[in-house]
Amino acid sequence: MKLTGNTILITGGGTGIGRGLAESFHALGNQVIVAGRRRKALEAVTSANPGMHAMILDIGEASAIRDFAEDVTGRFPALNVLINNAGIMRAEQLTAHPAGLDDAEAILTTNLLGPIRLTAALLPHLQRQAYAAILNVTSGLAFVPMALTPTYCATKAALHSYTQSLRHQLRGGAVDVLEVIPPYVATHLMDGASDPRAMPLARYIAEVMEILKTQPAVTEVCVENVKRLRFAAEGGNYDAVYSLLNEARPAH
């Protein structure tokens, strides 16, 4: 991925990994737009980073995404990088009665339909750029699921598969397709921010940016902390890793 000279849109850019990536790319001189539902969080990011822009986006609303895509490309015609980072994670008890699907449907809409819809809305614009990139943020849990959060893990696995197909269909063109695969990172997604087992956010972002800098042709951004999950099946360790993950208090 080209690290400078970009106009970058980051969903879920008000907190956590999204904010960390936004600030890192902004520091490299890129024009950065953070998008999300919470105006206060976005304004905190832009106030701390003069020159950064913020736009409200409800990633769960299909019509809002279409309108947003028109608005953002009109305001920022040089937009050439999309980072699909927005996501939610909730514990679910699948044996609960009566079975309510509100959480599952919200997770599916935000984590999977949101990135697919936004990518579809922006893809014609991105394909007209001399260079463009789409980065989809998945999770180590796409490869070894945590039973406590079944729909979250399923959406990340689906987004991994979608990303592979998108990359294949766009091969040979001007749009790079990358997958960013975080481990358990200290953010406010569930209770990670206060868990000493979580990878510190600043260290995670620094390692991601170093990978992008030193491996410009990388398609999967895997820091060391996530490789146990990402390559559990390939390494023949899936059962052991699954058991370890789900016996103790789980990791993202």
CATH superfamily: NAD(P)-binding Rossmann-like Domain
Supply Rg.
Answer: 18 Å
Per CATH, the architecture is 3-Layer(aba) Sandwich
Strand content bin: 5-15%
Widest sheet: strand ordering: 3-2-1-4-5-6-7
Question: What is the residue-mean pLDDT, rounded to a whole number?
Answer: 95
How far apart the termini lie comes to: 25 Å
List how many beta strands DSSP finds: 7
CATH class descriptor name: Alpha Beta
Helix content: 40-55%
**Unreliable parts:** none
User: Which word captures the global form?
Assistant: globular
For the structure shown, list the relevant keywords.
8 helices, Rossmann fold, alpha/beta, 252 residues, single chain
Word description of this protein:
By secondary structure, the protein is of the alpha/beta class. The protein has one domain (7-247): Rossmann fold. The chain has 8 helices and 7 strands. It has a 7-stranded parallel beta sheet, sandwiched between helices. It starts with 6 loop residues before the first strand and ends in a 5-residue tail after the last helix.
Question: Summed up, what is this model?
Answer:
The chain is α/β, with parallel strands linked by helices. The chain is built from 8 helices and 7 strands; from the N terminus they run βαβαβαβαβαβαβαα.
